[in-house]
Specification:
This protein is mainly alpha-helical. The protein has one domain. It is built from 3 helices and 4 strands; from the N terminus they run H-H-E-E-E-E-H. Helix 1 runs antiparallel to helix 2 and helix 1 packs across helix 3. The longest helix is centred in the C-terminal third of the chain and has 21 residues.
């Protein structure tokens, strides 16, 4: 689980283009979806926690986060900080494959 804010900070930290970051922001920030049940569309609702199932960007998001964690681990080992990396578990956003 990763906060959206962390994802956007990660995109900036590993120097993705502003255009790509903006596209991700448009896709995942304040997004509404509508479900169809028995040939009837329900009222649209906000996606608050997850990426839609089957989203082709999930793999890429996972790789971006993995790269950032790798950078964080390398920095910690260079300064010989053996306490590890502090990760918050409060108010998380979930990215599911």
């Amino acid at each position: 689980m990763v906060k959206w804010k962390f994802l956007f900070q990660a995109l900036d930290a590993i120097e993705f283009s502003n255009e790509f970051s903006l596209m991700m922001l448009l896709l995942f920030n304040d997004t509404k979806i509508c479900m169809k049940i028995n040939r009837t569309f329900l009222e649209p609702f906000m996606i608050e926690r997850r990426v839609q199932q089957g989203c082709p960007l999930v793999l890429h998001i996972f790789l971006i986060i993995a790269k950032v964690f790798n950078i964080m681990i390398i920095k910690k080992t260079k300064i010989r900080d053996t306490r590890g990396i502090q990760l918050s578990i409060v108010h998380r956003q979930q990215i599911m494959a």
